[in-house]
Amino acid sequence: MARRTRAYAGVAVLCAALGLSGMVPASADDPVSATPAHERELPPHRLWYEEPATSWEDEGLPIGNGHLGGVVFGTVDVERVQFNEKTLWTGGPAPGRDYTNGNWTSPRPDALADARRLIEENGEVEPEAIAELLGQSKTGYGSYSTFGELRLDVGDVGAVDDYVRDLDIDDGVASVAYTADGVRYTREFFASYPDGVLVARLSADEPGALSVDVSQTIPDGRSNTEVTVDGARLTVAGNLDDNGLRFESQVHVTADGGTVGAGEEAVMVENADAVTIVLGAGTDYSDEYPEYRGDDPHERVTDVVDAAADSSYQQLRDAHVADHRDLFDRVALDIGQELPGIPTDQLLDGYASGTLEAPHARYLETLYTQYGRYLLVASSRPGSLPANLQGVWAEGTSNPWSADYHVNINLQMNYWPAEVMNLAETAGPLHEFIDALRAPGRVSAGEMFDASGWVVHNETNPYGYTGVHDWPTAFWFPEANGWLSRHLWEHYLFTQDDEFLADTAYPIMKGASEFWLDFLVEDPRDGTLVVSPSYSPEHGPYTAGAAMSQQVVWDLLTTTTAAAEELDVDEEFRATLRETLDQLDPGLRIGSWGQLQEWKEDIDDPGDRHRHVSHLYALHPGNQIAPETTPEYAEAAEVSLNARGDGGTGWSKAWKINFWARLLDGDRAHTMLREQLTGSTLPNLWDTHPPFQIDGNFGGTAGVGEMLVQSHVGVIDVLPALPSAWAGGSVDGLRARGGFTVGASWRAGMPTEVRLSSDESGEVSLRSEMFTAPVRVYRENGRPVEHSTDGDVLTFATSAGANYRIVPQVRVDIERPDDARRPGSSVPVSVELSAPDRRAVPATGASVEVPDGWSAEPESVRMRAVPPRGSATAEFTVNVPDDAADATHPLSVEVRADEWTIRVPVPVEVHR
Ligand code: FUC
Fold it and tell me: Which of 76, 137, 531, 901 is 20 to 30 A from 854, comparing alpha carbons?
């Protein structure tokens, strides 16, 4: 068998076995185009099943518009659509409740000092002892709650054929179809952001075939509930028992043909051709400290539902699909996936058991990656609360961990994909939520710790719960203010939005920094400034100066300084920050077994498999550690990560994808993606902790982003952690810090083209192996762009709004026999040089370098200039000496022009 070795950018790649034909981007020969370059139309992104859902959590299909969420069961006789509205929360201020936002109900002037003394005296303190001093039982925390179920009762349908239910995440539409009595019935469901409603549509291929009773269930825990049916409108309104929160939902039913009438607590449709149902819902919640109450939802809900009821189904659908696609279509990922002909649950099973064809496994990986983007669009849109532990979907009135906002990783992880995966707008709700935490957080900081600025602990709710509770291993995490602040800074880095930095990000970052300026203490062990009490989530002892605490605070003070510099404000404050940073323990230590220490003392247990890997915050999401800038710490992080192992709960595996990507190990990142899909993903592709917890979906999607592009150390690293399982492909639409959109096509793991759009004028540096050999940079008008290279880094000046493409100047393909050669035989080696674009390659020479005792004929040849898009070849014969050992011998082919040299290894295996 002949093997082809191909080099772009001077690095050899073995292609023949990889079946790469068909992966060349359509624009490879077209220097004018810098836009997405897919040779083929990508397979649709669709989850589908052959049975109705029996379990909400495992099988239900989610739709959402940030405010409203629906989970479609696809049950035939009575369709169930469980729905949520993001603000329907128990807890918070309520008549007769002394709600303190988690702050101590009575002053504890000595508590903090006592906790610090205990730590100073003992070094390590049991969590229970600290919880005893600083904790307090939860009051008024509440839970996110279901609104109820929309029920579409079509009567006893009897046996059905050709049942299918699906979720088309390209369009954001779920559907159900079946045949009964020879009639084909179809249902569609979506949640519209532009129209603010959930929409259901029933249709049939025979006129008059649809009769349905439309109703809504009312969960427990409601009072003053009124259900009214007025013609085609069903209204349910009342108050939550727990806190009096006012809620209201309205359902409007429109039929094409047939009749619509009011029934007992239901709208009844008889003999229609098609039926459209719109649902709006709201509460009187408002994200305003301290009352957290706004207007009665009646008028708002009425207006929204009236407007939607006046639109045709097609108008609603078109507006929704356009809105959804505007966000969703920004990223296109092609890793050579092919559409499998099996339902998604079987696909997932096949993936886990390793029985899928590789292109079908890759289909699941792209579907999963894009599903994270779908879920973010569905659960976080401007004006809504941010995505909670279950996004916007929750089945019960009291949900796992309240379906709240855990801020010792989970809420942050929800937003990891927002920037890199080109959905920056979806992060708006997070920014507003953090902003709203400042008012209660300032009171917590002042009352509890006599500190300025603002603080929040381990978890919070929409009612500004910034104080504490008393679960010893998960209540203390004031560093959350820093970790949250990082998201605002990152948004600025990605968007370069100066106004956002000045008006939103900086005041929040500054407030968080002020807290730490007051809260840090001097460590008697070495005089550095440390966090105390400090707790590495959610295990080990309480100590002073655990790695994560220090890294988060270091990160916060560093980025706040940078932000103030950028804005040219607060000179004095900047100086204080710098002084503090000089004295701050940065939280980076390499321990006795080569690990990155999780605590300031070297007490890490190599057998510790805890799901939190907090001490690697500096590697991801932080950038204090990177293989390029701090190789020793990166190595230590790798030791720690290996010790933690590849297990963990859903979100923990997702984090590990990101870690390995940041360590530039694509295969290991891919292993973690496999782990997540195999052990922590439900049939509806929701991540499971267990139970269902959406952070893992978002972390997984972000991890794929980190595998494809990174930009956290000042250079845009293109395909930094590409796994060998994704040998060929293309991606477009990823975002990089500095205001860039990045795309690339690759074959055999090596870019064949890199695409870049620049929001601003300035200089850009990109890193890729591709740049170690000559490349050309073109603007969209076909004009070449001057650039310089330094090793694998390429730098050039960009103009605002311009598009660029970077292509290899020359491609080298080498063909030789792949099988083992006997001593005394000869090996034909053929070298093909081609010019992939419309510029010629200058005259070159090619030679074969052989080990001592070997020979090549000829040793070297001159090759003529290669015309644009043309090629030239040279043939060699390599003679294997009679005494060649059984081994793989290091041959190489060298091709050189005046300004560059490409050396391609072509090892030859000798076998007697
Ligand atoms: C963190 C995790 C738990 C869980 C909870 C919601 O505290 O440690 O495992 O995911 O969040």
Answer: 901
Q: State how far the alpha carbon of 4 is from the alpha carbons of 815, 818, 833, in Å.
A: 4, 8, 13
What is the Å distance from ligand 1's center to 699 Cα? 14
pLDDT tens per residue across span 850-876: 999 999 999 999 988 888 888 889 999
The residues near 76 (Cβ < 8 Å, ≥ 6 apart) are 52, 154, 157, 160, 163, 176, 178, 180
Instruction: Please tell me whether residue 332 adopts helix, strand or coil conformation.
Output: strand
CA 407 / ligand 1 centre spacing (Å)? 9
For residue 538, give the ligand 1 atom closest to its CA. 8
Q: How close is the Cα of 838 to the center of ligand 1, in Å? A: 55
- Spacing, Cα 399 to ligand 1 middle (Å): 14
Order across the sheet with 161-168: list the strands.
46-49, 161-168, 173-180, 183-192, 197-204, 274-283, 246-256, 233-240, 222-230
Q: Kindly give, in sequence order, each residue whose CB lies less than 8 Å from that of residue 670, ignoring residues fewer than 6 positions away.
A: 707, 723, 725, 726
Does this model's pTM top 0.85?
yes
Measured from the Cβ of residue 782, the count of other Cβ atoms closer than 10 Å reads: 13
Residue 39: predicted pLDDT = 63
Query: CB of 389 within 8 A of CB of 406?
Result: yes
Candidate from 143, 477, 538, 688 with most ligand 1 atoms within 8 A of CB, to mutate = 538
Q: Which residues of the chain have pLDDT under 50?
A: 1, 6-37
Pairing of strands 855-857, 860-863: unpaired
Q: What CA–CA distances, in Å, run from 832 to 120, 630, 714?
A: 70, 40, 37
Contacts of 182 (CB under 8 A, 6+ apart): none
Q: Are strands 892-896 and 844-849 parallel, antiparallel or unpaired?
A: antiparallel
Are 358 and 17 a contacting pair, CB within 8 Å? no
Is the minimum distance from the CB of 538 to ligand 1 under 6 angstroms? yes
pLDDT reported for residue 15: 32
Of 585, 528, 577, nearest to 556 by C-alpha is: 577
DSSP characters over 208-237 = T-EEEEEEE---SSEEEEEEEEETTEEEEE
Give Cα 499 to chain centroid, integer Å.
25
Distance 612 CA to ligand 1 centre (A): 9
Instruction: Provide the β-strand partners of residue 204.
Output: 185
Measured from the CB, is residue 457 less than 6 Å from ligand 1?
A: no
